[in-house]
Amino acid sequence: MRNELHKEIINDYLNGESSIKISKALGISSKVIRQILKSNQISLRDIHERSQKYIHDENIFTSITNDAQAYWVGIFYSDGYVTKNYQVGLCVSTEDIEHLHKLNKFFKSNYHIYIYKPGKTSYSNNNYCRLLIKSKKIVDDLCRFGITTNEKNPTSIINDLSVPLKKGIIRGMFDGDGSIYYTIKKRKKKDYKEFAISYTGNLELVNFFKKFIEENNFATTRKIFKDTRAKDTYYIRIQGNRQLKNFLDFLYKDVNESCYLTRKYNIYRELCDFINNTTSFKTHF
Prior knowledge:
- The chain is α+β, with helices and mostly antiparallel strands.
- Among the domains are: 1-45; 175-284, Roll (Endonuclease I-creI).
- It contains eleven helices and eight strands.
- The strands form two sheets. The chain has a four-stranded antiparallel beta sheet.
- A hairpin with a 4-residue loop joins strand 1 and strand 2.
- The protein is globular.
- The protein starts with a helix and ends with a helix.
- The relative contact order is 0.11.
- It holds the Pfam family LAGLIDADG_3.
- InterPro entries: Homing_endonucl (IPR027434), LAGLIDADG_dom (IPR004860).
- Residues 167-249 form the Homing endonuclease LAGLIDADG domain.
- This is Homing endonuclease LAGLIDADG domain-containing protein.
- GO terms for molecular function: endonuclease activity.
């Protein structure tokens, strides 16, 4: 019961409610509310932050007409979320805090990015950061695109978009819930990097991602796997350096740096360099 109360207090505070408002709603003194927040490593907002007037572009998602809009909608299909209090948020590892600065710039906003330490009721077991923006208009627009508090369904809009815009949405989904990695194996006594990608999500999102890859002849994904570590979570995995490069070229080649996750883009570049060096070696052999 106590943990549930703490979780409610933390969620309300992180969703923008003041400690005074929370204390009135729960019948607990604001001093106790602040003590609970501190004990869970939640940074308290200072006077400047509480009084500052925040700004953002209300009409940023009125329609999807460019790569940036498509990309960030894709992010919200994966890592992002909306709340019943008309807030739109994104949490990432502190390793990727630059990505939240990109999102803040996209929203044309001056909202603060908060950094949190892991706690018993926290989003992550590692340090993480969060950007949270309050806007009924933005939440309503995202709901039109199939992003609600209960579900995420890209099929409601994807068929009406051009290929370049679909590319942005798929890149956002992959940057949010995809992964790219490699293992080193021996081939003819030389180290060989064998790259792979995976995409994780609910069954509907994974099926959507799988169908897009197959219909565009990037690869054949034979099976959808059940992730036993989480409820209602599935994933696909694709291997083969050259077919992966074709798919990742489609996602990342000639894309503005404001519309990709730098960490994943750098591994894509590592794949390109590895293939180029391998091809060069064969040519000069």
